[in-house]
């Protein structure tokens, strides 16, 4: 068992990820083979089902990418289910307090470190690798709070002080809404909040993550994120990449008047 996401971050390198919403195992497998270090299956903003998520986890198991499931909130039952299916990380939306963070982090680990109940199903090789899984998983799994509100930024130091919180990821759009600067990512108030999260992570000895809000296909976008102190980067996914391709083709048709 290994975890590419944690390995790269532990080495001080960037971990580049993508989010998937369409629920296709083939798309998940393709993204995993494309060189992404981690893949987030988004069950917050897309109609994912447990069966569909397991199929995507199985597809990602054929690739080096680390599979993470995104939840709409800290939910111990859903965390247990998707970890038992084989996810190696949980990313939870709207974590705003250290209590939220502690509940999420503990839900990802077995006693005595946490409160996760035992029954790893696919994650333990359907009973064939259960002992190895139990020995290693508490260190391999990641709990990743999404920081997307002003209260979360205000509590960021306390959130990152929680044992088992591996790194935060800024959700830029909702954070900009909460700060009253809708989509104004270069505004002073947004940049100050972003800098506070990065500084708090550095002070806690943890990496910081960012959902890229600059153009994904421009190297300068990732360079700027790295300069700002972020190493766990989410840079797009199936929906935005396909939309971008469709827009490119629409541009070709306009140019040729087709």
Strand order of the largest sheet: 1-2-3-4-5-6-7-8
Identify low-pLDDT runs.
Answer: none
CATH topology: TIM Barrel
Tell me the number of structural domains: 1
Q: What value does the Rg take, in angstroms?
A: 18 Å
Strand fraction band? Answer: 5-15%
Q: Which outline best applies?
A: globular
Helix content estimate = 40-55%
| Structural classification | alpha/beta
Structural key phrases:
TIM Barrel; 12 helices; alpha/beta; 8-stranded parallel barrel
Notes on the structure:
This protein has a single domain, classed as Alpha-Beta Barrel (TIM Barrel). It is globular, with a radius of gyration of 18 Å. Helices cover 47% and strands 15% of the residues. It has 258 residues and is of the alpha/beta class. Helix 2 runs parallel beside helix 3 (50-60).
Give a nutshell description of this structure.
This protein has helices at residues 4-10, 25-33, 50-60, 76-85, 98-107, 130-140, 150-154, 156-160, 172-178, 188-204, 219-227, 238-256, and strands spanning 15-20, 38-42, 66-71, 89-92, 142-147, 169-170, 209-211, 232-237.
Helix and strand topology:
Blueprint: H1 4-10, E1 15-20, H2 25-33, E2 38-42, H3 50-60, E3 66-71, H4 76-85, E4 89-92, H5 98-107, H6 130-140, E5 142-147, H7 150-154, H8 156-160, E6 169-170, H9 172-178, H10 188-204, E7 209-211, H11 219-227, E8 232-237, H12 238-256
Helix pairs in contact: 2-3
């Amino acid at each position: 068992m290994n975890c590419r996401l944690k390995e790269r971050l532990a080495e001080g390198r960037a971990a580049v990820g993508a989010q998937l919403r369409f629920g296709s195992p083939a798309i998940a497998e393709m993204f995993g083979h494309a060189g992404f270090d981690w893949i987030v299956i988004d069950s917050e903003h897309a109609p994912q089902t447990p069966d569909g998520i397991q199929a995507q986890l199985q597809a990602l198991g054929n690739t080096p990418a680390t599979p993470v499931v995104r939840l709409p909130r800290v939910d111990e039952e859903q965390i247990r289910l998707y970890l038992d299916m084989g996810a190696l990380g949980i990313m939870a939306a709207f974590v705003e307090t250290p209590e939220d963070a502690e509940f999420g982090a503990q839900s990802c680990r077995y006693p005595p470190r946490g409160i996760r109940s035992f029954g790893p199903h696919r994650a333990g090789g359907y009973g064939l690798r259960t002992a190895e899984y139990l020995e290693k998983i508490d260190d391999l799994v990641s709990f990743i709070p999404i920081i997307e509100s002003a209260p979360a930024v205000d509590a960021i130091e306390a959130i990152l002080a929680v044992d088992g919180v591996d790194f935060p990821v800024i959700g830029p759009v909702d954070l900009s809404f909460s700060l009253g600067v809708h989509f104004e990512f270069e505004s002073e108030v947004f940049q100050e909040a972003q800098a506070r999260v990065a500084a708090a992570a550095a002070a806690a000895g943890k990496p910081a993550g960012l959902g890229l809000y600059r153009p994904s296909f421009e190297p300068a976008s990732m360079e700027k994120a790295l300069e700002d102190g972020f190493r766990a980067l989410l840079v797009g996914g199936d929906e935005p990449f396909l939309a971008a391709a469709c827009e490119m083709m629409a541009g070709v048709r306009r140019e040729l008047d087709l």
